[in-house]
Design goal:
It is a single chain. This protein has 286 residues and is of the alpha+beta class. It folds into two domains: 3-123, 3-Layer(aba) Sandwich (Aminopeptidase); 142-280, Aminopeptidase, CATH 3.40.630. Helix content is 29%, strand content 32%. The protein has a twelve-stranded mixed sheet, with helices on both faces.
């Protein structure tokens, strides 16, 4: 019989081992875990003491004394999870924790997200579902990349002349900003060297960034070109510049792209990205 239990820092060896065995399927958990607790390559059982796990509340599914599923209710009202044994969905504890914590989002491998939703659908409403591909680039060839000097890090800009581009970006990605002045100040004050922008005639018209990094992957995101400037190869040049930054590192570039974004998928495939698995985000209400 398996058991679904809350995990503590004393379980660090099991958590690290599971993440190390399933880094691609556990990428969301891995990002939060390492951001909050440190690199899994540096964590050892000798560090247990009175420390507490950070980043949210962790649950594990054990069967025959082996961890076969990891669930993280994050501090940002999401449930991210991956299991290698489907029998965890038969445990009433999973349903009780979801009912108690009411995550706004559930994220993970599409098949598993859908199976979990089928179990809880009578008690929640599905407000929105994003169906995506998790894509990875296993062979990063720096010599094949064509680099454009018009691409710089956002921190090199002391003045943002066309804030309209960034307003367009915020609206595209459904992000809320307080005001134009707040948005402008945020950009000018940024020290992020992984946030790259493309300028044409002294105006920023494209962007892309390395959103997250962990011990295994660097996640590319936010690739966007102003509507009036599309079809000129700008997105391709931004992606090439990002890959140049990553090729020298022993880390795999990955990205998550919506399945209906045909142009972006074609661009990523052209650079050698392949679909690793289907990935979903479900937005719920209770």
């Amino acid at each position: 019989m398996g058991k679904f239990v809350e995990l503590a820092y004393n379980d660090i060896d099991d958590i690290v081992g599971y993440l190390d065995e399933n880094p691609d399927y556990c990428n969301d958990i891995l990002n939060i875990f390492e951001e909050s607790n440190g690199s899994i390559k540096d964590l050892k059982s000798s560090m247990k003491g009175n420390r507490k796990l950070q980043g949210g509340t962790y649950f594990g599914y054990y069967r025959e004394d082996a961890l076969q599923g990891l669930f993280l209710f994050t501090n940002k009202n999401s449930l991210v999870f991956y299991y290698s044994n489907r029998s965890v969905l038969n445990k009433v504890g999973v349903l009780l924790e979801i009912k108690k914590r009411k995550p706004k989002y559930i994220k993970g491998v599409s098949e598993q997200v859908d199976d979990l939703y089928k179990i809880i659908h009578k008690t929640v409403d599905l407000d929105k579902s994003n169906l995506c591909y998790f894509m990875s680039l296993n062979d990063c060839n720096k010599d094949s990349l064509e680099i454009n000097d018009n691409i710089k890090s956002i921190n090199e800009y002391k003045e943002i002349k066309n804030i309209d581009f960034f307003v367009e970006v915020e609206n595209k990605f459904d992000r809320n900003y307080y005001s134009i002045n707040d948005l402008r100040k945020k950009l000018v004050d940024s020290t992020d060297t992984n946030y790259l922008v493309y300028s044409s005639n002294d105006r920023i018209v494209g962007q892309g960034l390395i959103e997250k990094q962990n011990s295994y992957f660097a996640q590319i995101g936010g690739l966007y070109v102003q509507t009036s400037m599309r079809g000129k190869g700008i997105g391709k040049e931004i992606l090439a510049r990002i890959l140049e930054k990553l090729c020298d590192k022993e880390i795999t570039p990955i990205l998550i792209v919506k399945k209906d974004n045909d142009n972006a998928i074609a661009l990523y495939r052209n650079y050698g990205f392949v679909e690793k698995y289907d990935y979903s985000v479900y937005e719920l209400s209770y």
